């Protein structure tokens, strides 16, 4: 096990470049299963989740070669095969192969990925959609089995705009017979990126980024070359870290339109933000003000930024309320922040955060990816030494985190822990 040691109190100053988006590359890697032809993905972040998704599709016979930040994916010998539980458990997003498998081979058998630290995360919306398209689903002994001798276009209304269900159903529909209409879909930028990749492969998908997506099934898809969009959550995390340390930071490659809700909150708290064509500049020289914040599907405030904004609010002036409306169990970081001196009360899905003058370094433990990011931010803001256990979570979603932070003047390093 490794931990991250952080000596807090140094303002983050300088420039970093945002990496490719984790939540865009994962569905796009799954989508390469939809063709027999080679694909080339550029701007791919070096993350554990990308490696594990690579293992998942390699299990199906896909060949992958990595050169720098480019992935060459050759699915010409891919076959439908059972995916073992040890792989699916390591990566929740492994469920994104269900749509492509059903679309191309008309069947799948995958181990249920189960819940995770942030919530139970059922797949009912994905499965209901597959059933509407003609699939028969059987869930037994921890596996989900699906067969669909023929897959038809259907008119599907999602009860909730689930990101994963929208992606899986888009991928199931691209090779189905006829037209699929997906209503009340997720509108995240990563859904638009998936649509763009599918259309480069010859699919007929339109509407991503809005409430309704229309997919006209085609008989076959070709290979495609595609550059992954920048990671809005990574960019947002560094902006929050800079604001918390009263620093100034330029995040090159960050897309303003993807971060509107986060930038609005940072401005409301008192940070200065300049939106530029190729990035975002933030400066925060005085104590920030507390704000209220509710997580919502995009374009609302992202749940994947909730732990980080909570860390920032721990030393803001006044009391703010954070409502987590997406995941039922995403406040583990609050107890750890309290060890550092934060004043936080949790009532179900509501956190009441009253700013204290300063946090103190402590030994804290991360249970999930964004919770880990929040603890790193708190460590950078705190007086003294913070040890963050559970840093392997960070490697799922942040490329070269220590290097990027060190280049901005942060004092942190990894150590082996017991
Ligand atoms: C790889 C990836 O892109 N992960 C993101 C994706 O996760 P993911 O795609 O898993 O998130 P969803 O949008 O599907 O889940 C949102 C909520 O809907 C519920 N739900 C979802 C599907 C379903 O069939 N039934 C159901 O009840 C979930 O339990 C959760 O409470 O979107 C989340 C919400 O923005 C982000 O936090 C994750 O970073
Ligand atoms: C919850 C997240 O990811 P995943 O859906 O891959 O668990 C996240 O990126 O914060």
TrEMBL record:
Its EC number is 2.5.1.7. One of its GO terms (molecular function) is UDP-N-acetylglucosamine 1-carboxyvinyltransferase activity. It is found in: Cytoplasm. Phosphoenolpyruvate binds at residues 22-23. The modification 2-(S-cysteinyl)pyruvic acid O-phosphothioketal is found at residue 116. GO terms for cellular component: cytoplasm. Its main location: cytoplasm. InterPro entries: Enolpyruvate_Tfrase_dom, Enolpyruvate_Tfrase_sf, MurA_subfamily, RNA3'P_cycl/enolpyr_Trfase_a/b, UDP_GlcNAc_COvinyl_MurA. The active site is at residue 116. This is UDP-N-acetylglucosamine 1-carboxyvinyltransferase. Pathway: Cell wall biogenesis; peptidoglycan biosynthesis. It comes from the Bacteria. Cell wall formation. Adds enolpyruvyl to UDP-N-acetylglucosamine. It catalyses: phosphoenolpyruvate + UDP-N-acetyl-alpha-D-glucosamine = UDP-N-acetyl-3-O-(1-carboxyvinyl)-alpha-D-glucosamine + phosphate. Belongs to the EPSP synthase family. MurA subfamily. Residues 9-405 form the Enolpyruvate transferase domain. GO terms for biological process: cell division; cell wall organization; peptidoglycan biosynthetic process; regulation of cell shape; UDP-N-acetylgalactosamine biosynthetic process. The keyword DNA-binding does not apply. The lineage of its organism: Bacteria, Bacillati, Bacillota, Clostridia, Neomoorellales. Keywords: Cell cycle, Cell division, Cell shape, Cell wall biogenesis/degradation, Cytoplasm, Peptidoglycan synthesis, Pyruvate, Transferase. UDP-N-acetyl-alpha-D-glucosamine binds at residues 92, 121-125, 304, 326.
């Amino acid at each position: 096990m490794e931990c991250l040691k952080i000596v807090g109190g140094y303002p983050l100053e300088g420039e970093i470049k945002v990496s490719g988006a984790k939540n865009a590359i994962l569905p796009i890697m799954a989508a390469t299963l939809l063709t027999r032809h080679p694909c080339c993905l550029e701007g791919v972040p070096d993350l554990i989740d990308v490696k594990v998704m690579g293992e998942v599709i390699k299990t199906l016979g896909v060949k992958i070669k990595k050169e720098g930040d480019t992935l060459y994916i050759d699915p010409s010998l891919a076959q439908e095969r059972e995916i073992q539980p040890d792989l699916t458990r390591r990566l929740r997003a492994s469920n994104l192969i269900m749509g492509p498998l059903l679309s191309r081979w008309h069947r799948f058998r995958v181990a249920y990925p189960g819940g995770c630290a942030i919530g139970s995360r059922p797949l009912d919306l994905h499965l209901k959609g597959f059933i509407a398209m003609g699939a028969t689903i059987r869930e037994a002994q921890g596996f989900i089995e699906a067969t669909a001798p023929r897959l038809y276009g259907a008119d599907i209304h999602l009860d909730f705009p689930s990101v994963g269900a929208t992606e899986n159903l888009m991928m199931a529909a691209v090779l189905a017979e006829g037209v699929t209409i997906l209503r009340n879909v997720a509108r995240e930028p990563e859904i638009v990126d998936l649509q763009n990749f599918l259309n480069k492969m010859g699919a007929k998908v339109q509407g991503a980024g809005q409430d309704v997506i229309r997919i006209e099934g085609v008989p076959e898809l070709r290979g495609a070359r595609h550059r992954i969009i920048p990671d809005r959550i990574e960019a947002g995390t560094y902006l929050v870290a800079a604001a918390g340390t009263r620093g100034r930071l330029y995040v090159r490659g960050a897309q303003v339109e993807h971060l509107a809700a986060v930038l609005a909150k940072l401005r409301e708290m008192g940070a200065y933000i300049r939106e530029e064509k190729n990035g975002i500049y933030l400066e925060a020289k005085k104590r920030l003000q507390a704000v209220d914040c509710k997580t919502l599907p995009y374009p609302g405030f992202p749940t994947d930024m909730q732990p980080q904004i909570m860390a920032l609010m721990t030393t803001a002036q006044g009391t703010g309320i954070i409502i987590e409306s997406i995941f039922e169990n995403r406040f583990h970081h609050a107890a750890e922040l309290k060890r550092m001196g934060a004043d936080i009360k949790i009532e179900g899905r509501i956190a009441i955060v009253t700013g204290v003058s300063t946090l103190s370094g402590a030994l804290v433990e991360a249970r999930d990816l964004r919770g880990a990011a929040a603890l790193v931010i708190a460590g950078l803001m705190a007086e003294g030494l913070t040890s963050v256990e559970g840093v392997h979570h960070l490697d799922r979603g942040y490329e070269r985190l220590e290097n990027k932070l060190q280049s901005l003047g942060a004092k942190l390093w990894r150590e082996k822990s017991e």
